[in-house]
Amino acid sequence: MTLQVFGLPVSRGVAIGKAVLVASSRVDVAHYFINADQVEDEILRLRDGRDVVANELEMLKRGMPEDAPGELSALLDVHLMLLHDEALTGATKQWIVDRHYNAEWALSAQLEVLARQFDEMEDDYLRERKADVEQVVERLLSALARGASSALVPAPGTTSGDWGGEEPLVLIANDIAPADMLQFKQSVFKGFVTDVGGKTSHTAIVARSMDIPAIVGAREASRLIRQDDWVIIDGDAGVVIVDPSPMVLEEYRFRQRQSELERERLARLRYTPAVTLDGEPVELLANIELPQDGPGAFKAGAMGVGLFRSEFLFMNRNGELPGEDEQFEAYRAAVESMQGLPVTIRTVDIGADKPLERMSINELRHEHTLNPALGLRAIRWSLSEPGMFRMQLRAILRASAHGPVKLLIPMLAHHSEIRQTLDAIARAKQQLRDAGVAYADVEVGAMIEVPAAALLIPLFLRYFDFVSIGTNDLIQYTLAIDRADESVSYLYDPWHPAVLRLVAGTIAQARAAGKGVCVCGEMAGDSSFTSLLLAMGLRSFSMHPSQIASVKQRILRSDASKLKQHLEDIMSSDDPQARYRELMAGGEAARHVLPMI
Fold first, then answer.
1. Domains of the chain, with CATH numbers?
2. The dihedral formed by the CA atoms of 380, 384, 388 and 389, expressed in degrees to the nearest 10
3. How many C-beta atoms surround the C-beta of residue 37 within 10 A?
4. Are 207 and 192 in contact (CB under 8 A)?
5. Residues with Cβ within 8 Å of residue 186, at least 6 apart in sequence
6. Which letter does DSSP use for residue 86 in this model?
7. pLDDT at 411 over 90
8. Global pTM?
9. 3-class secondary-structure state, position 307
10. Could you tell me if 283 and 303 are in contact, meaning their C-beta atoms sit under 8 angstroms apart?
11. Is the pLDDT confidence value at 306 over 80?
12. Cα–Cα distance list, 504 to 227, 492, 511 (Å)
């Protein structure tokens, strides 16, 4: 029977595929694909883990006291039986062979299948045996984790076509950790659905960067959708259709083809300069997360990288931070991939929805912080780890010898933080000079993402060469909401008058001071804001490469000087979005922005 699930649309388009469920577990599970030549080794890992658990259970049985209840021995026998049951280990092996899942992922996938089967049993006793299966699987996962040093990882050069089998796949999860998103970034999945999250949660941002349909905040999706169900993700309407009828399936396949044609049309603008109708040139830059994203940004027509999120180099490493040379090689690769165009590297922005396994040398973990968005994150964490911070600064400075580099500092709010940061940069430079290591002059910029920074923009402009407005956090902190929490996602409003005034004021004051100003948050890549940001005076946008073409199209159809005449009217309105739409839909302004909003 066809089922519909509703959520928040965060990345447009249509995806059709079989559901892959990433189930929540009390044991952390790594999710990654393996190569074809690694399948046998991964099955061996599974078999070894099974043998370890079997030995543990046998030892428990042998070590039981004579007066132990007979039920306890019987329970261990049940667990041993389940451990060797083909419905568990045999089917898990099949996930590895067919989908190229790693052993942990295959186990969690099969647990999901078995758990649903037990839930549907009418007999109460049999239904309660689900707990036994869960306990056996968790023992297996723990055994695999203890032998994690032998775990396989995807080999370089593996293509998404080598993974997941022949059928298209869509990912369904309660939530997706940033570390897992790094593994999934090869576009093997055609779309994402998560139970939780908001429009600027990490999952949403990565889905947009991959240019694939995504829905977050779907609440019950991972419970209602079964492993291998056929699923349609409508990223425009925020609807997930499960087990669609042939007629509905054909309708959405037609929409898929239309979307592909529209992408091809926009791709023709790749080498067209971004210039408004009144002759104002606009800089379109790319946001990237890993060095290998650089070639894609260059191919999309980006004029440089406006934001390299360096924190992704620090994730998925079992708590081991990357060393200076490893970081240097990554930054150099990104710089060289842009072929002489500038690359802005942001120092590590760890915390909130991007925790590390090891948050500090004192093993401070993300879940111990009551409100991580307001805790030890971004520049606060860097300044608390001066050795790590100087190591990263040295690596970035060394990369500047291989091409134009800008250095960007996240989440500054205090004068003391500014001074400490600039002192750390000066020390890093001195260390390189003392060691005879080459580096070039780099511009240093500050992220404006805390209201205090936006209100004190003259102070920041005295110390920094440029500023970059991070609208995602600026909106979150201005409106006092957690942008990753779907329960308050309706309050996340980029059109809020307070937000627009902070953005407009920052742009105006930076331009008046002759300093560069860029918007690198999600507003920059949303073409519905392009004309408004142009009217505010913004001439530098940084976004995911997949969004460049649509924003460029809007720029080419905009007259910035005439749009500016309507800015105060929009900004002074109680409902700026409604007033903006009204102006764009009729009257003189409509002739200066096509197509109409």
1. 3-23+156-264 (3.50.30.10), 36-150 (1.10.274.10), 268-592 (3.20.20.60)
2. 40
3. 10
4. yes
5. 33, 158, 159, 160, 163
6. I
7. yes
8. 0.71
9. strand
10. yes
11. yes
12. 47, 18, 11
